[in-house]
Amino acid sequence: MKPIAIWSLAATLSLLQGCAATRSGAERELGVKAEANYATVNVFYATDRKSTQSGDIRLRFGGERGELKYGTAKVSIPRNHKMGALEAPSVWKFQFRADPEKHVVLLDVETLDASKYFQAVATQIKRSTTKSAFVFVHGYNVTFEDAARRTAQISYDLGFDGVPVFYSWPSQGDVAKYTFDESNIAWSTANLERFLGEFAENSDADKIYLIGHSMGTRAMTQAYVSLLQSRPGLKKKFVEVILAAPDIDADVFKRDIAPAMLAGEGKITLYASSQDIALKASKTVHGYPRAGDAAAGIVVVNGVESIDATSMSTDFLNHSYFAGNRSIISDIFYIVHNGFRAQNRAGLEAVLTPRAAAVYWRFKK
User: Fold this and answer.
1) DSSP assignment letter at 131
2) CA distances from 131 to 41, 112, 202, 230 (A)
3) Residue 39 and residue 133: Cα distance in Å, rounded?
4) 68 with 56: CB under 8 angstroms?
5) Are 137 and 220 in contact (CB under 8 A)?
6) Start-end of H helices in the chain
7) Going by C-beta distance under 8 Å and a sequence separation of 6 or more, which residues neighbour residue 37?
8) How far apart are CA 121 and CA 302, in angstroms?
9) Whole-model pTM?
10) Using CA atoms, how far apart are residues 242 and 309, in angstroms rounded to an integer?
11) Confidence band (pLDDT; 50, 70, 90) for 1?
C-alpha cells in the first residue's frame, strides 16, 4: 500500500513562498544583511587548508594541507536568485566580473581564534528559534571559495534559521587531480572528527545536521562513526546525516559504514542517481560501484532512507543535483524544518525492491 504523504500537492507547490517567508524571517532574526539588490549571508567555516596569505579573498585558502582554522565568510545572494542556482558570471552573457547583484559572490573572509569562533556561533544559535546548525562537507574538485558559495546558497534556499557551517578540506579544485583529493580527504578525516566534536560541545546547538557531498562523505561518515564511538554522549546532538551522491564503495557502505552510523541517534538520508557521470567515472577508477550511483541498483540498507534522484538533473555531470535542483532542495526543506521522514514527504513515492524485502524512494515525475 502506497504511504500517504502528510503534505498535500498544494503545500508542495507553495513551498517557494514558504521558503521566501522563512528566509525573510531568518534575515531579520540572524542578521542577514539586505542590500538593494542582494542579500549577504554570513556562514561559518572550519578548514585544514593552508592559508596562501593572498590579498585576494577568493584565493585565501589553497589546496595545500594546513592547520585547522576557523572563521566566517560573507556571501552575496542576488534578489533575483533562482532556487538551486549558483549564479556565476557567464561569458555567453558577456559577464567577465562577479557582480553581487547578479551572482553568488564570496565577499569577505575573516579568520577567528577558536574561542571567538565558538562564541560567535553560540551567539547566533541563541538568536535562532530552532537552536540548530548544519555542517556541509564538500566533495572533490571544489575550492574554498566555491564551498563558501554553495553553503550560503543552501542556507538561503532552505530559509535556514540556524547556523550554516562548512568544513573545507584541501581539495585541489582541479578535475585532473582526483587522486590528490583522495589522499587529502583521508588526511582530513581526523581533523574533521576533532572539529565535529568541538562544534557539538561548544556551539550550544541542540540539533546538528550533517550534509556531505561526493568524496566529502568519506571523511564525514568516518569522522561521525569514530566520534560516536569515542564520545557517545554527543549522539543526541546529531539529528540527521544527509549523504548526497556519496563517492564511497557501495559494498563497504552497506557492510561496514551504514551499520556503524545507525548506532547513533541521527536519521540517515542518502540521495543517489543512475545518471551521475562523476560517480560512473569513479566506478571506472575503483572497479566497484559507488553508494551514490544507482545504475546497478540503488543502495538499500534497513534504517537508511535511500532516495533515487535519477529524474533530477542539474549540471553537466548530474553530480550536484542535491543542491541544484528545486525538488531536492524542497525535500531537504521538509527534513530540516519539519523532521518529516520519506513516507511523509509529498514529492516522493515508495518503490519495492525486486525481492519486496525493502523499500526505497524516488521523486514523483
Assistant:
1) -
2) 18, 22, 13, 25
3) 20
4) no
5) yes
6) 9-13, 15-30, 114-127, 144-158, 178-202, 216-230, 250-252, 258-261, 277-286, 321-324, 326-338
7) 78, 79, 80, 100, 101
8) 35
9) 0.89
10) 14
11) very low
- The domain 9-363 having CATH identifier 3.30.70.660: the answer here is no
% of the chain exceeding 90 in pLDDT: 75
Beta bridge partners of 109: 73
Q: Residue ranges of the domains in the chain?
A: 9-363
Give me the chain's average pLDDT, please.
88
Run of H or E including 165: strand 163-168
Give the CA count within 13 Å in the CB-facing half-sphere of 94: 0
Sign of CA dihedral 209, 215, 221, 226: negative
Amino acid code (one letter) for 8: S
Rounded CA gap, 214 and 290, in Å? 10
Cell, residue 251 = 559494498
> How many residues can be counted in the chain?
365
CA angle, residues 302, 340, 127, in degrees to nearest 5: 125
User: What gap in Å lies between CA 301 and CA 248, rounded to an integer?
Assistant: 14
Helix (H) or strand (E) holding 100: none
pLDDT of residue 352 exceeding 70: yes
